Amino acid sequence: MSVSASFDLRVVRSSGKELASQIEIIKALANYGWSFFRGEYVCYLPYGDNDNFNWTAEIISFESFLKILEQKEKRSELIGVSMTWKNSNIDGELLIWGAEEARKNKIHTPISFNMAANRKRFISQNNYEITDVNWYMEKLLPALNQNGMYVEYFSYEEYD
């Protein structure tokens, strides 16, 4: 059975209600322990994807990857990237809409984190299995609540 689990977030600068930049968010996650590499590969939505979701995997440096993301941010493109927690196999896909696109399309929560098949799970005493939401909160919220940013809003959904 397939499970869909995701967080939606709104990250703003602490100086006001302005959305945090896409690059600020990526750097904060990388500095906190999230990796954008699977071995040597980075899986992301390429420059000019235009919401086609043609995920690309390529071998590039983190610096080259950031340059691509900076170009996407300048064009207010959707940034999409797979990420993994430190040396684990726990992963997911991060989607960050540009501030201009979020305002134009009235997107209240311009960040979505979709947990993949390798999500962290909690199993109850009677073997009921759900996503371990606390684990993700501990790995996402502190990373985003730094460098002049804070999480203004978040929600979580899970469907079987």
Structure description:
This protein has 160 residues and is an alpha+beta fold. The chain has one domain. The protein has four helices and eleven strands. It has helices spanning 22-32, 62-74, 99-104, 133-144, and strands at residues 4-13, 34-35, 37-38, 41-44, 56-59, 79-85, 91-96, 111-115, 121-123, 129-131, 149-159. Strands 2-6-7-8-1-11 form a six-stranded antiparallel β-sheet. The chain has a three-stranded antiparallel β-sheet with strand order 3-4-5, with no helix packed on it. It has a two-stranded antiparallel sheet with strand order 9-10. A hairpin with a 5-residue loop joins strand 6 (79-85) and strand 7. Helix 1 packs across helix 4. The longest helix has 13 residues, at 62-74. It is globular, with a radius of gyration of 16 Å. The mean pLDDT is 87.
Counted up, domains total 1
- Mean pLDDT, nearest integer? 87
User: What is the helix/strand order?
Assistant: EHEEEEHEEHEEEHE
Count helical runs: 4
Uncertain regions: pLDDT < 50 for 5+ in a row?
none
Query: In percent terms, what proportion of residues is strand?
Result: 35-45%
Proportion of residues in helical segments:
25-40%
Strand order of the largest sheet: 2-6-7-8-1-11
Shape call: globular
Main sheet: strands, sense, barrel? 6 strands, antiparallel
End-to-end CA span: 7 Å
Total E-strand runs = 11
